[in-house]
Amino acid sequence: MSQALLLRLHRWISLVFALPLLVVIGTGLILSFQPIVQMSSIRPNMLTAEKLESYVKRFDPQGQARNLSVDAYENTLTLNGVGPDGSIDVDLATGEEATADDGWISDLFSNSRRLHEHFLFNLGWVVTASTYAMIALASLGVLMGWPRLRNTVSGWHKGIAWFLLPFIMVSLVSGLGVAYGITFAPAQANVAGAPRAQPVALLEAVRLVSAHTDPSNLLSLGTRGGRQLARIVENGEVRAYRVTREGLQPGPRNWPRLLHEGNWLGIWSGLANAVTSLAMLALLGTGLVIWARRKFRRPTRERSRRSVPAAQTAEGEIR
Asked: For the chain, which residues make up each domain, given as ranges?
């Protein structure tokens, strides 16, 4: 396949998927800061076992709550399945029910995740197609060979693509793994595939989690697929545990999700995802600039061809 054909394919794929790629990469950049904000907000003993248990007893006396989540950067505890609106937010600073809606940080991450996973009008297939398109663009760039690096828009475009290619490919491939539910975990070891049993009551699950770790490290706790699952931060990594009456049983690591969401090395993995997202935005932007220059600026040789007949005509008129 000729260099010109590879370049043309590269250019047209970029143009066709420019808008969805802008949305997916832009929201991915925002979401890359979620683990950074989350990990930096968690402080030891921020939420003690006594306080957590008292909040569950006080705001869910009937034991109707299905799950709970802790939002460290908004400093709130949310109980779902109770209250007139279906959930109750507890201000961890005061211990009282929060009267305001979710903060702007939570809204930003929530809306960005919705767009990142489902695009507009719940068109999740557009996100998947855009990911395949980005992989195709990276592959075509590699097939075009090692570039000449220069201090130009084109030079920066090629340099970013080549030097950050491993990070970009890891992000794209892991994103497809998340989309297709690939975990690389043995079926018998998967938390979701463990034998079903009577779910542990939420209050009892809270006590079991508190016995296992500092409750400040708890992100969420609730029933999923008939099992009580807890997501806990351990050494900067988000781990999944199955909560049983015998204690917490660790689940296998879902590496595609950990890598794609930046939840495997705390702040550092979040920063790596942020750099990767910035690189992909730079590639998209510089690629469009290169195309626009070629499209809307008349080539020099074309101007030369058009200027020659004009000069000859003028010379003939003079004679």
From this structure: 1-45+102-184+254-319, 47-91+198-253
